[in-house]
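User: I'm preparing a small set of examples for a lab meeting where we compare how different chains pack in three dimensions. I only have the primary sequence for this one, and I'd like the structure in token form so I can line it up with the others. Please keep the answer compact; I'll paste it straight into my notes.
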Amino acid sequence: MQQDRYLAAVDLGSTKIALTVAKVTGENVQVIYYKETPSDGVNDSNVFNPIRASKPVGAALKEAENELGIKILQVVVGLPRYAVHQETASATLQRVDPDSCITQEEIDALKSIALETYPLDDAAKEEIYGAVAQSFNADDLIQQPERDVVGSVADTLEGNFRIFVGSKRSVKNIEIMLNSLGVAPAKKIFMPHATANAVLTDEERDNGVALIEVGGGVTSLTIYQGRILRFYGAIPFGGESITTDIKYEGSFKRELAENIKLAFGACMPEKLLNMSEKILQINDEETGAYEHLPVKYLSEIITARAREIIDAVLFQIQESGYADRLRSGVVVSGGCANLANFANLVKEMSGYKVRIGYPRSHMFSAEACPDICDPSAAASIGLILNAKQDQFLNCTTEPVEIEEEEPRLIEEEPVQEVESYDGTIFDENANKEEAPKPKKAPKPKKERKTLNIQWGKKISNSIGSKLGKVFDETIGGLYDGLN
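Assistant: Understood. Below is the structure token output for the 483-residue chain.
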């Protein structure tokens, strides 16, 4: 009988940290805990202040331990996404027995040689985050993938690798933060490869695909072709830049700006129907003053920044040399993938076919944690699935008592329930498969209504507070006239 083991993963983001705990039995992965918490001390996915960063992480670990009745002794953590540059490296191995078949152990040994002998520009400040084999030469076999070289026969084996190099200080800061909490880093994982494993299919990686992950502070690009990671790049802005634009344009608090983005944000204002005539009225409970924010203008603010992000990513796709080889198009993941019409904007600007990247639910079960199926949780699932490969890794010492559920395959991709918008406010070309089915609203007594949103000290926590309440009260008026 296979023994249960438990994995804990921390995704350190610029705006949030996500803690995931999963029970692993053989090949079955059951997510038993997932929660997001606002982060601190993290900028561009780099921990710049370990003490500040440790506070939300420590609180998240404590909450999970109390809820699950466990003690988390070590966690799997992702390496920074930004300020990572890629280099090429090669290594050659003269085989001892040229008449024997090449083994996976020899491939791994060749990779280790390439990593150990690669000359870093500044070894005191830089560290190799990861390496991916690009091709192998085995005598007459030239530029072959790894799966074709293993099992062949040759005198000499040569490998070509792509090396990803980042800041050593950033890694040290993660270790300092975890050590201050009495938690050990079980594994430090290069995130792009892990996230791709969570959302991309084998066919997409084989035919050529670009994964765009739009996080809070960093937007990353990972390109696969021939099932091999060929290119990685990142830019230092993402969803938080959109929130900041709304904050400054409306003179709002950051929390209110984020809630407005989640509730009423959309790209491509020209695709709004009569929703564009709506106006949000935001009242200040402290001063009695109020501001008017037209929904169409809000969409224009969001679209301007979204176009800037997409333009920067499309430039990197051109620089990669794989722009004409992306037969499977683009997959958009991360928190901004849920923004209405964002995927359509990527499609319009790039010309590629585009889909939203949900974690592939057939690889795990998560009945108790529906949020893990959201695009923003793709990185967290990627960490768990990567750590699962280490059969000796166990992040807890005490068993978790939970209700047993039969391992099952979820055949359909989950569609996130979004309170922030109704798919009927967009034209018929806008994200039909992701948009929730609209409910019938009563006919209006007047042709136009003003949405009145109260805000103040009580709204600073989440959309579920004051804004959520007003959203519920006005949702009928919001979609007046749409039917």
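A couple of notes for your slides: The first helix runs from residue 50 to 68. The chain has three domains: 5-82+170-196+360-388, 85-168, 202-359+413-483.

User: Perfect, thanks.
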